[in-house]
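Objective 1b: paired records.
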Amino acid sequence: MCGKDDNDWPMGDGGGPNTSFVQENGTINPLPGNPASPEVNQQADNDYYFAGEYSTVISSVIAVYGDYAPVGTVSANEEAAERAFAGGDNDLRYHFNLPDTLLPTDLMSVTFDALNLDGSAGLTDPRYGIEVYFNGVLVQTQIVIRSDQLNKAYTTPQFTLASVNAEVGPGADNIVSLKGISYSADGGGSWMGIDYVQLNNPSELIPPPVFPWAVGKDDNDWPVGDGGGPNETELSIRFREAQQARRSISRRTMTTTSPAPIRQSSPATVPTHRSVWFLPTKRPPSAPLPATTMICAITSTFPTP
């Protein structure tokens, strides 16, 4: 974790969550950068280093940035990091080793929080885009940050170590990159600040959403279907309607009739009966008559009330 969720840029000691965020210098330096940037505005570079050994470059990083000589041993977390995207300075890179206990199938995600935006007078739509990369592999497509999106944690979809060419153990120079997308030419402003960035190792897979999704379909009916989704058997809705009708009756007595004998079971069985409820003051005929007040009709998978 570089920085922490404090909605601020305090000066700290020890790096990591206590990293001092300093004003960016306005340019993007080539890899590998300096692992000992001073805690002085405009003196830090684009590369922040956690303590570790850096002797092995990763092929997908080289494919994006070109070859470079890794920095070797970094004995302590770097103290300073650039705090924002600004002008052409739109690449914030975080270097780290991964524990050798991790497996290629282990899941990871990245969380970040945008702190502030350029609020200069005359901007028509202050905003900034951000993408997230792991070892040069895109893991989060562009999110456009406006004022309503500030001070909110955004977490990328989960990905496996293998899918981003991650390498474990001392030596491997793994890099998470936040890349800014400026809209300054369209009234978006010229900078956006970062509160913190964090690498996560979640234990359970969150399945990605599938769109479009639907429950039921536009058929003006309640058919019994198979497979759920658009073929959902809409029992729960009708059961709630039945419950509401039942609450509207002052006496507890309830009479039920059906075209065939009603089978009651526990647990519930496959629905085969249509139950018609009437006010208890009326005698239920074999079929509803004009003089009969019908409350509702349901097909149930639960014991008949």
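Objective 1b, second protein:
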Amino acid sequence: MAARRGVLRSIGLGLITGAADDDPSAIGTYASAGAALGPSFLWTAPVTLPMMFVVVFLSAKLGQVAGRGINPMKALVVAGVVQGFSTPPLMLLIMLTTNDRKVMGPWVNSRASNVLGWTTTVLIFAASAALVASWVM
């Protein structure tokens, strides 16, 4: 038990904070680390995932206890709309960047990755256009 506490103290709050910091500003950091280090730090994903769930769960419980929660259905609709409009340009930028040899060096996309990536990008653009069309009509 004492050894376990020592390990947790050595990790500190930084890992919990890092696990909770899953926002758009961190994507650049993750992409840079992935490009520089490759998959060598992939082991951290299953380690930090439970901590992300704990942060979300405790935030929900805090809102429930305080009586100041949000309507989850409204939150899902807003999240869907925001993602629907922000994902297409981000996918376009990702595909253009991952095909640029000056940026990616030897890690540019393979032919299979390009087919899958560009197909996904086109489908996401089409889905966003359909979302806009459904509002207009």
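The CA atoms of residues 76 and 135 lie 17 Å apart. The mean pLDDT is 79.
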